[in-house]
Amino acid sequence: MTKQEVINRLLPKAQELKRTFGLHVSMTLAQIVRESGWLQHAPGNNFLGIKAPVDKYGNVLPNIPKDRIQLLWTTEYISGKWEKVQRWFMNYASLEDCMDRYAKILLLPRYKQTLNSKDFWDSTNYVRLNGYASSPVYTDSLRTDILSNKLYQYDWYHKPKDSIETDFTWDETYSSVRFKGKTYYRIIEPYPNLWDKVFKLAHLLQDIRSAANSPLKINRWFSIPEYNAYLGGVGDSQHLVGLAADCAKPKTWTMQQFFGYVDTTEATGIGVGRAYLHIDARNDVKRIWYY
Length: 291
Fold this sequence. Notes:
By secondary structure, the chain is α+β, with helices and mostly antiparallel strands. The chain is built from nine helices and nine strands.
């Protein structure tokens, strides 16, 4: 199968796990891709590297049927180095059975941080810290798979070019991410609990766009915490809640005209740069600052 055919095979079940348990589709896909080599290696239909539960001596628990386990060679990171070892793994009747078991594993208390993650950026970090894999680079491997194969798009609730009740589209709001020295633009959609704030800002920006009679280019709208920190943003940045956007100067206005009009709107936070304005709609006294 091609990579896209693999994704198409996995997608319906991964979306079901999202609806039922809230698992991020992108991470589910990435873990299967990583663990099975794009469905090429999955002894006993174990596409997710799920081990059999064992006691402290490495013996499989007595309640596990013998026909449900298999002894396999695997490579693990032990005491600072990679070692090839034998471990007991589960086997399953089908790919879907394996994915169902995967979901139940992530419902265990030890994976609380993984399950409660708001986006794949956090969940790929916590799934390693919570003990799913021994590899110290597991998080980076999953993020590489998600970014290089654009698996993040399967987490989106909206189509990128859907309107936000204005001339603005959802993809203009997405957070970028910084990974291994490269910026990946407009990757993570604002979380559902922030959509009311996104709508509020979109209507404010639409007023400005209409007054300028010119497109209003958005350089940054929503930002996840890590990307906000990378850009030097403060911890209470309105970008974190979808209430701020950095907008390039419209071609029809000078910077003085741009600022002058925005200052008459309901914008309560205005940051003035050389060729752009930070515009936010915080519920606070009006603030103006300069970069």
